[in-house]
Amino acid sequence: MIAKHAFQEENVVYAEMRDHGLTEGADRLNHEHGYVKQYLFELGAMAKDDPAWLPKLRAFRAMIEEHMREEEEDLFPSLRAQLSDEQNHSVTVAMNREGLILA
Ligand SMILES: [Fe+2]
């Protein structure tokens, strides 16, 4: 689920963001996707009774929540506002196509 979400955003939305002057935000979000994988790797490698496991999980959750907040409340609306209805529809179609690649 996380992999599909990342694939769709990285291959379509972040690329559109860069094409519409939102390169810094797209690069930051893409960087954070890398750290989602890093957290999953590290949490998976740790024993669940390790005292550092829960604090790391909380940090991971906080990072994801901030990432989603920035996408949903700031950067995606900025992109959406720059696109025509037809372009927004094309982005949706392209995201669905990318999602099917991983289905
Ligand atoms: Fe994302």
Notes on the protein architecture:
The chain has 103 residues and is mainly alpha-helical. The protein has one domain (2-102). Helices cover 86% and strands 0% of the residues. The protein has 4 helices and no strands. It has helices at 2-19, 23-45, 53-82, 85-102. α1 (2-19) packs antiparallel against α2 (23-45), α1 (2-19) runs antiparallel to α4 (85-102) and α2 (23-45) packs antiparallel against α3. The protein is elongated, with a radius of gyration of 16 Å. The N and C termini lie close together (10 Å). It binds fe (ii) ion (FE2). Fe (ii) ion (FE2) binds at residues 9, 29, 33, 67, 71.
Order of secondary-structure elements: HHHH
Work out the radius of gyration.
Answer: 16 Å
The mean pLDDT is 95
Low-pLDDT residue spans: none
Q: How many strand segments?
A: 0
Report, as a whole number of angstroms, the end-to-end distance: 10 Å
Q: How large a portion of the residues is in β-strands, by DSSP E?
A: under 5%
Cα shape: elongated
Helix content: over 70%
- Find the structural class using helix and strand composition: mainly alpha
What features would you highlight for this structure?
mainly alpha, 86% helix, elongated
